[in-house]
Design goal:
The chain is an all-alpha fold. Helix content is 38%, strand content 0%. Helix 4 packs across helix 6. The protein starts with 7 loop residues before the first helix and ends in a 9-residue tail after the last helix.
Length: 133
C-alpha cells in the first residue's frame, strides 16, 4: 500500500481544495431583509423610519439599549446595560423576555442561528440616519 504524504505547495493546494469545497456560512444581509419581515409589524428601519409599536432600528450596532429617541422604553430595557452588537443581539433575539425580563417586547424570539446572523447583518448595515454603511 502506497501512502503519499503532502508537503510544501502540494499541502497548501490540498488544503485550499478542501476549504473551497466547504460552503461558506457568511452572514447574508439580503437574506436578513427577508427575516426582517417578521419584525416589520413593530419595527421600521431605513431612511424615514419612525417608531412604531417598537423603536426604529436605525443605528442599532453599537447603540446602548433603551436609547432610541422618542421611544418610551420599559425601565427593564433602559437598565439592561446592553450595548448592541452581534453577540448581544443573538443572545437577546433567541428569547427577548428571558434576556430582559419585563421588557415590552412581545416577540417570542427566533431559534434559527442562520436567520439570526442574517438578520443582524441586515440591521447592522444601517447608520443612525437610516442610510447604509
Amino acid at each position: 500500500m502506497n501512502h503519499t504524504k503532502y508537503s510544501g505547495p502540494a499541502l497548501a493546494i490540498a488544503a485550499f481544495a478542501l476549504l473551497a469545497a466547504v460552503p461558506a456560512r457568511a452572514q447574508d444581509a439580503d437574506a436578513g431583509k427577508t427575516v426582517f419581515n417578521k419584525c416589520l409589524p413593530c419595527h421600521a428601519i431605513g431612511e424615514g423610519a419612525v417608531n412604531k409599536v417598537g423603536p426604529a432600528l436605525n443605528g442599532l450596532d453599537g447603540r446602548k439599549a433603551g436609547t432610541y429617541a422618542s421611544y418610551p422604553y420599559s425601565d427593564a430595557n433602559k437598565k439592561s446595560g446592553i450595548i448592541w452588537n452581534a453577540a448581544e443581539f443573538k443572545d437577546y433575539i433567541h428569547s427577548p423576555r428571558a434576556r430582559i425580563p419585563n421588557t415590552k417586547m412581545a416577540f417570542v424570539g427566533l431559534s434559527n442561528d442562520t436567520d439570526i446572523a442574517n438578520l443582524w447583518a441586515f440591521l447592522a448595515q444601517f447608520k443612525d440616519d437610516g442610510t447604509t454603511k
